[in-house]
Amino acid sequence: GADDALGRPTVARALMARGHAESVEDAFRRWLGHGKPAWAPRDGLGPREAIVAIRSAGGLPVLAHFGEARQRIGVVRELREAGLGGLEVHYRSWERATVEAVGSVAAELRLVATGGSDYHGDLGPYADAHASLWVPPAVGEALREALGRSAYHRAR
Fold it and tell me: Is the dihedral of CA 35, 39, 41, 42 positive or negative?
């Protein structure tokens, strides 16, 4: 279900249930957002370490939610050289111009263009934004082909 993975959206829903927030967005605005009382930094891998781990597991590392790809193409190029395999082109809140700009970076750097809902089970405007996201079927087919080329998936 929506609460299988404990994360900030789960905490936001709990704050709503206890009357401390009117919506998930309100919980983030008042409690969970950067610099707010319940905010905590994330621990995790750096991008290069994540790329190695994903590749080692037979996956395709994809940079997601990076609408600044055209303006910061040097960063994307460095990650491509480190093994990045894809770039999220279709994202729920992007306008057509951003999709086109990020898509051109993916094509230029020969990265697989991806897209997805990034859905966390939330209600309201967040969920509505996901309902309007359309990812062309060719995107899924290209991703499946790229994954099929990995040793892990060929062995299954």
Answer: negative
pLDDT by residue for the chain (156 residues), tens only, comes to: 455 667 888 999 999 999 999 999 999 999 999 999 999 888 888 999 999 999 999 899 999 989 898 899 999 999 999 999 999 998 877 889 999 999 999 999 999 999 876 666 655 665 666 666 777 788 788 888 888 887 555 555
As a whole number of angstroms, the distance between CA 147 and CA 106 comes to: 17
Phi and psi at residue 48, in whole multiples of 5°? -70, -40
User: What is the rounded (10 degree) CA torsion for 24, 26, 30, 31?
Assistant: -10
C-alpha span between 106 and 104 (Å, rounded): 5
- Domains of the chain, residue spans: 1-43, 45-155
Distance, CA of 118 to chain centre: 6
Token code pair at residue 23: 């919506």
Task: Dump the DSSP string for 100-116.
Answer: HHHHHHHHHTTPEEEE-
pTM over 0.70: no
Length of the chain: 156
Span 45-155 CATH architecture: Alpha-Beta Barrel (3.20)
